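queue> pop job 88
queue> type: inverse folding (structure -> sequence)
queue> payload:
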């Protein structure tokens, strides 16, 4: 099976400020995020990686570069969900929106205002990751740098729980998840390896849109 290492970008300035960054330009890693990404370099140093792929958004490319992949292949389909008019808004404000509860309970029915539907995002990213894995031999490892919701989608698909239950999955900034893929057969090896465990056991993930960012200052 082709091994796919899914890595969410390190903590960004938007994560730290509790803002839904989406596809907004100019959002970079903060100091904690750069440290997270640099630590990934050591963790991945001995891995026999055949190729590295990345979302085109700056915070993913910065994470890939700090993790030891200076020229990842940019794949548009790995980009963040398009949150439309929600882009750039504070998560604590968005919680008061009427559709918020629907995003948690029935995400497959949600389309963001002037943006992408969660179902389209789910289908886009799972299809792209499947295509990338199919390019490689069964014994090869690839690394994919993407965003919270897209990685949650890939993991939910791998677990066989689908879009309507993908909010049951959480991925931390710089969290590493590994799956193996051979055609339609998928095995999940780990979820959220690495990173700072205090982000998982020290406080609950407070927001479940944009990947469920833990937006507390360090």
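queue> result:
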């Amino acid at each position: 099976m082709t091994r796919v290492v899914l890595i969410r970008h390190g903590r960004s300035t938007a994560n730290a400020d509790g803002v839904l960054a989406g596809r907004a330009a100019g959002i970079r890693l903060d100091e904690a995020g750069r440290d997270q990404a640099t630590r990934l370099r050591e963790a991945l140093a001995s891995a026999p990686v055949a190729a590295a792929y990345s979302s085109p958004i700056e915070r993913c490319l910065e994470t890939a570069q700090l993790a030891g992949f200076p020229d990842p292949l940019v794949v548009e389909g790995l980009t963040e969900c398009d949150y439309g008019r929600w882009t750039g808004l504070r998560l604590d404000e968005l919680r008061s929106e009427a559709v918020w509860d629907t995003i948690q309970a029935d995400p497959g029915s949600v389309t963001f205002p002037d943006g992408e539907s969660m179902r389209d995002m789910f289908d886009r990213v799972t299809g792209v990751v499947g295509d990338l894995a199919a390019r490689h031999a069964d014994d090869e490892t690839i690394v994919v740098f993407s965003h919270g919701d897209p990685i949650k989608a890939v993991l939910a698909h791998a677990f066989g729980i689908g879009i309507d239950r993908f909010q049951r999955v959480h991925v931390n900034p710089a969290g590493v998840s590994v799956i193996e893929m051979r055609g339609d057969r998928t095995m999940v090896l780990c979820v959220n390896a690495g990173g700072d465990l205090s982000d998982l056991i020290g406080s609950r993930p407070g927001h479940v849109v944009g990947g469920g960012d833990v937006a507390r200052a360090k």
